[in-house]
């Protein structure tokens, strides 16, 4: 029985790996102008969401590998408290970033992702209203497919706040292979729809 379960798990991980490869290829080939238009549409959809409007303490991400670019969102709402992650070891460490001084408070991290400087104040993770979460894809059950590093998988179970997956609409799918440790999201937001799980 143990061998059967291990084999089943290996098949699932292989399916995830292949799906990641295909989706990264697809996203990498979105023309720049289209990527910018879709990113802006996504920012507009988030900014019109009542949950976002009521939220003061928000965790977000900087665009990597042609993820949606949310920079116009935080530039439009600099009075909100914005937190961004640093990857340290196996963990995500969140820092508060002053949007008015954004470019001076960020640097390229170990994965070439724009991250906050280490000496910025930490975010109070006990008082988070909304978490905008990057993903390669999300499905109808609210599960997300990440890059396979497990940073969000390890962090999300202990997180507080409404969890929203942020993707372009073509990466919303019926079903993604998921594991027992995967945390379903509360909402999925794309450039054309907002779905509450």
TrEMBL record:
Keywords: ATP-binding, Ligase, Magnesium, Metal-binding, Nucleotide-binding. Its EC number is 6.3.3.2. GO terms for molecular function: 5-formyltetrahydrofolate cyclo-ligase activity. Its cofactor is Mg(2+). The keyword Ribonucleoprotein does not apply. Belongs to the 5-formyltetrahydrofolate cyclo-ligase family. This is 5-formyltetrahydrofolate cyclo-ligase. The lineage of its organism: Bacteria, Bacillati, Cyanobacteriota, Cyanophyceae, Pseudanabaenales.
């Amino acid at each position: 029985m143990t061998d059967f379960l291990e084999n089943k798990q290996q098949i699932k991980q292989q399916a995830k790996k292949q799906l990641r490869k295909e989706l990264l290829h697809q996203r990498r080939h979105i023309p720049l102008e289209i990527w910018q238009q879709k990113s802006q549409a996504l920012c507009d959809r988030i900014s019109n969401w009542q949950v976002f409007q009521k939220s003061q303490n928000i965790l977000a991400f900087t665009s990597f590998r042609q993820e949606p670019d949310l920079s116009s969102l935080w530039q439009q709402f600099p009075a909100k408290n914005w937190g961004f992650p640093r990857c340290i070891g196996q963990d995500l460490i969140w820092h508060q970033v002053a949007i008015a001084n954004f470019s001076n408070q960020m640097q390229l991290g170990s994965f070439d992702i724009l991250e906050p400087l280490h000496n910025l104040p930490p975010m109070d993770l006990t008082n988070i209203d909304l978490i905008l979460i990057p993903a390669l894809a999300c499905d109808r059950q609210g599960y997300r497919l990440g890059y396979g590093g497990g940073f969000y998988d390890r962090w999300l179970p202990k997180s507080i706040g409404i969890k929203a997956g942020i993707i372009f609409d073509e990466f919303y799918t019926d079903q993604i292979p998921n594991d027992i440790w995967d945390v379903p999201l509360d909402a999925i937001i794309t450039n054309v729809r907002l779905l509450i799980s």
